[in-house]
Amino acid sequence: MGHISSKDIYRKLGRRLDQAPVRTPWTPVFRELVESLYSRAEAEFVARLPYRPSTLPRISRMLGEPEDALRPMLDGLCAKGLVIDIWDGGHYLYMVSPIVIGFFEFTMMRTGPDLPRARWAELFQAYMFGEKDFLQANFGDGQTISVMRALPHEEALGEHVEILDYEKASALIEKHTEFSIGLCSCRHEKHHLGHAPCPTPMETCTSMGTGARFLIRNGFARPIDKAQMRDILARSRDQGLTLSADNVRRDAGFICHCCGCCCNLLRGVRETGYTGILVTASVVAAVDEKLCTGCGLCAKACPVNAVTVEKASGQDSPKPSKIAAIGAHCLGCGACALKCPTGALKLHPRPQQVFHPEDSFERVMLQALERDTFQTFLFDNPQSRTQEFMRALVGGFLKLPPVKRALLGEKLHSRFLTALRRLAG
């Protein structure tokens, strides 16, 4: 009976986690994963937490338990990365970690003895890439709002090409005074899966501002200064890594330094063709055919196989001699241009505008609308039968194609989200 009861608790937790902006469909592997990460007491507790970030007093009222009894459990879950504590300047807001950016990264950033890292790595890899349910649920219907976006290397920009400060890694760094560095979760995962050693250092996950404070406070990262951040950025440029950041225009909190051999985001784009996994920059690579020698270094550098080298038209030699095309799934990262010895490749403005949400609030709301979980943010008490009914009612309405198209349309969603901000505030 105890084993059956345990399964029921974890199934309840699974339903709770699946209502995040990043969906986690229930599969046999996901059951093994949550059982490995959460104790039974933690699973039962997390399943009862509100869907929106909430203060301890609000959680106390919702659960009907005293704050002093809840605080140790919340602190323990934050230390494991299963709950996130966000300091908003006046108090902590607690929210259940989604799988990304969330308990995948924080779990694989953990250090210390006696942690089953190899088992965690196997389960995460099997869930994200083995069963296909996870990627299909989040990107299989053409979803375009993702957690992360590519940052262009500024050195790869074409002459006179201007980008906004939110797309410049250097500008993001200059805006902040607090920084952290920790283990790259993807690289650490591949290490424990026995993959070939990566030439990129393991410790390359950099965060800024409130994100850095969360990671340092809970032991996932250590503090560094602005000069060290600049050095890490320069190293990533020299190594031709792909830079990525929060998919927001304001208050970005991290910069990832991604290699094609380890990064799950890049692998996802490369293997599935779901371009929404990593949102592109507002620029795209373009080739000056007069300068191209067909050396192929650009194709080797592209982390998502968006650059191809083919035989030049009208040429008799069977040897490929120039870049024929830049694929539609080019990220605009500039890794290819950094390796071009002749300067034939540069980044230029995309013909079509790329949408990046204003901030985390807008990104989360739009993700939730795309993935049919928006109703949980309106009625966020898992304990209330009335709110459960309202979630089902509103959720069914929001799934109607005309309604979803209208709310995701740029004109309506801006007014809709402005109203929600006022309500949340």
Protein model, in words:
- With 425 residues, the protein is of the alpha+beta class.
- The chain has 4 domains: 2-104, Arc Repressor Mutant, subunit A (Orthogonal Bundle); 148-277, no CATH class; 283-349, Alpha-Beta Plaits (2-Layer Sandwich), CATH 3.30.70.20; 372-424, no CATH class.
- Helices cover 46% and strands 13% of the residues.
- It is built from 20 helices and 12 strands.
- The chain has helices at 2-17, 28-37, 40-48, 56-63, 67-79, 99-109, 117-130, 133-139, 169-174, 185-192, 209-217, 226-239, 264-272, 297-301, 335-339, 360-370, 375-378, 385-398, 401-408, 410-424, and strands at 83-87, 92-96, 148-151, 179-183, 203-208, 222-224, 242-246, 254-258, 283-287, 307-310, 322-326, 345-349.
- A 6-stranded antiparallel beta sheet has the order 3-7-8-5-4-6. A two-stranded antiparallel sheet has the order 1-2.
- A hairpin with a 4-residue loop joins strand 1 and strand 2 (92-96).
- Helix 1 (2-17) packs parallel to helix 3, helix 2 runs antiparallel to helix 7 (117-130) and helix 7 crosses helix 10 (185-192).
- The longest helix has 16 residues, at 2-17.
- The termini are far apart.
